[in-house]
Amino acid sequence: MDYIDDMRHIFGQILADFFSPLNLVGVALFLVGAIVSTLLAVRAMKLLSPEEERAFRERFSRTRLPLELPIYIFAGSICIGVLYPKLRWPAFFTALALALTFYVLNKRVLSRRYRELGINPAFQKAYDRSRWMFYFGLLALFILATLA
Predict the structure, then answer these.
(1) With 60 as the cut, is the pLDDT of residue 128 above it?
(2) Nearest-angstrom CA–CA distance, 58 and 79
């Protein structure tokens, strides 16, 4: 019975940590960033000609999973911080370094693909802005969840 009581206590603490005010604000900021990012991306797509839009959709349909990689990195870091509180800050800085490296490499790859496809610069700027809104929302969630 002690084991079951210990597990109830651990999971109860994890749920209490998850529903802390800082985490809830972080989730709200993440959702706002994701929604604004989507709206900006839709508006950016209107800057493309039909040929550019078709080429863009064909070329970038395969990049969805790698673009979600920072979400998995941050989620893993938050889980490590909750399960092993002593590793919270090393996990935070490791995840932050990995995410920043990913963003820099991703920006280079996407810029090269834009040039290969001959996509207009106005779209590139608008689409990059939409991605940054998502990144800021994700970063806010990550920082607030780590501080909670």
Answers:
(1) yes
(2) 35
